[in-house]
Amino acid sequence: MIQKTEAVVLRHRDFRETSIILTLFTRDFGKINGLAKGIRVPQPDWGTRFSLFSHNAIVFYEKKGLHLITEGELLSPFSGNSCRLETNAVANYLIELTDLITPLEDKNAAIFEMLLYTLSLLARETDLERIVHIFEIKLLRLSGFTPRIDACLYCKKNVANFAYFSNLLGGLLCPDCLTHDKKATLINRGTVSTLKHILEVRDEHLLRRLKMSVITKNNLGFILRRFLAYHLDKFPRSYAFMQRNLNQKLA
Q1: pLDDT digits (tens, 9 = 90+) for 121-137
Q2: pLDDT value of residue 79
Q3: How crowded is residue 245: how many other Cβ atoms within 10 Å of its Cβ?
Q4: DSSP state of 129
Q5: 3-state class of 137 per DSSP?
Q6: In this structure, are residues 134 and 90 in contact, taking their beta carbons and an 8 Å threshold?
Q7: CB neighbourhood size of 46 (10 A)
Q8: How far apart are CA 7 and CA 95, in angstroms?
């Protein structure tokens, strides 16, 4: 069956002399793997080179395992939006994280729209660390890994000032219930409030106005990294490269 959709390129690798194998996140079919034959030989049928991060309109023939991509048209070359190294480092992390956390052939238009929107922001945003944390939290929610932060997981008591975040249990513990996970990480009130706000707000444009203190960003970064590492089979290799470039920018 012939299908049409929009797609963001997550991965690509050369296949034989003229073709490439692609991993794409699509609007209508979720993450798919596909083969684009003859694309490395210039020809009028291909209106795109399927570069990383790029947004494309594609036509593909559904096949078991590896779909056959027959047409592609470039809609937006996000990799060309900025020559800043830190911008490309962040984009690499976002697409690798999306690739690792999403299963194949599982439609999720909300993730597609969020990924598309976030990539389009990178070239014009200065606080890239804030954008990264918003994306991580939203991706967790849309993928079904939403942390429980409304109250303590055990006693259901509201968290007034500070609490502990448990990777094992996927949410907050109050000091009285810390025995349920002694490896839980201390999280301050400002970080809890920021997490709640990001999880609750559905309008991505409103989140662009969200301010984060350095303490909150550091706290979120530490907690989210451990939470993602706990729930993923492997952690994105691009994370360390992104952090080095973000730190150099702030130095």
Answers
A1: 888 888 999 999 999 99
A2: 56
A3: 19
A4: H
A5: helix
A6: no
A7: 19
A8: 12
